[in-house]
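Troubleshooting log. The previous structure file for this entry was overwritten by mistake, so regenerating from the original sequence record. Sequence copied from the archived sheet and checked twice against the printout by T.R.
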Amino acid sequence: MKIAIVTDAWTPQVNGVVTTLLDLRQRLSAAGHGVTVIEPSAFRRFRCPGYAEIELAWRPGAEVARRLEEDQPEAIHIATEGPLGLAARACCLRRKLPFTTAFHSRFPEFLTASIGVPARWGYAALRRFHAPSAGVLVPSSGTMEILARHGFANLRRWSHGIDLELFRPSPRAVIDLPRPLFLFVGRVSPEKNLEAFLRLDLPGSKLVCGGGPLLDRYRREYPQVHFRGSTPRAELPAIYGAADAFVYPSRTDTFGLVMLEALACGTPVAAYPVAGPLDVVGASDGGVLDTDLRRAALAALEVPRERARARALEFDWDAVSRQFLAHLAPIRRWKPDAGYPAIAQLA
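Regenerated output below.
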């Protein structure tokens, strides 16, 4: 099958959405599917307000339509709600083409936390974006419940997978810090609720791997915490494996892929019992969920590492990619694009 994936999140961005889409493309290609990714690098770009390291496409409508027309995929998946996602959505609606979308990030809560915009406004805007979708792919059951309460329709459960060859137990690397070692990996940004971890009174050491807009500020305010900054993905398995527990303080992420990476390396997870952790850790004995994050972090030290790895084995990419394919909406026939006659003449 020829599949077009349209995404505003792509390399060199480092986040769970990019990691998921990269792994998905690799798995689909290995299974014999043709995958075209329409992403920001080929467009004029501007920096996302508040996140200078993220670049978004500038007025991409005509070029997105041209690329889709040229490739004529058999299915279109719109992964994000940014400029590229909006352009692909508009093209599909003009041409009456079915498409699927994904809900990866709870932006309404992010906006509420950062600038005070009521979450219901953000959900109303996103509901309109996803309304024409043949299927809104959602990574966790908790997030599906939230979206259903906000009136979203056509919700489809699509879990995420983990590269179990890259992220696996190995001889534990030596990190010269007092034990126990509590780790967080992810963006150092407001939506991660990272201060809930940084403020915890815990024995041993805290290590944070990741970059973001709050990194410099947190380095000043929490000098006792060790901040490694942005870390190449290839180095993460050794760091995960060296930690005694992985602490995930976010209350608003839809999934939390880094928790799955930690579990795959045999590192127990401590988190709040909210959407995301409830799906990744759930009722398994690979980690600890508690409304008291300190209590969860200390209890995670007692979890056998083989139980953490066993939980990760349940998130195999082969099953996840088959699930993705089953949710796609096939395009039966391409018709000329009345909105862009010059493009239609190229067909």
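The chain has two domains: 2-161+320-344, 181-315. Archived copy saved in two places this time.
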